[in-house]
Design goal:
With about 110 residues, the chain is an all-beta fold. The protein has no helices and nine strands.
């Protein structure tokens, strides 16, 4: 049985076939995750509390508690805590091979 706590991220590469990591993240008001992308990882963000502005590719949308955001591999993305309270979310990172799923460059 695999039971561990998420503390500054949990690497799951040895335990799971395609799930690479899970993170419990908190952004303080005004804090930003810089624009970046992943060549072979797709992500899901689950917002636990707070709100902010999420940009994926050319789209920007306000996100809030209980939202689930899907980020395809190779899509540039950034998250800004535009609120006045901490923005807390869980990120699930999944490894995607070759031509599976979407590509921003297609």
């Amino acid at each position: 049985m695999f039971v561990k706590q998420i503390q500054n991220g949990l690497d799951l590469a040895e335990e799971a076939k395609n799930i690479t990591a899970i993170f419990d993240t908190s952004l303080e008001p005004g804090q930003v995750i810089p624009l970046h992308f992943h060549d072979d990882i797709e992500e899901l963000y689950y917002i636990l509390s707070g709100y902010g502005m999420m940009t994926i590719g050319d789209e920007t949308k306000e996100i809030e508690r209980y939202d689930v955001i899907y980020i395809p591999k190779t899509f540039p993305h950034t998250l800004n805590n535009s609120g006045n309270v901490p923005l807390r979310f869980v990120t699930l990172s999944v490894k995607v091979k070759g031509d599976e799923r979407n590509n921003y460059n297609n």
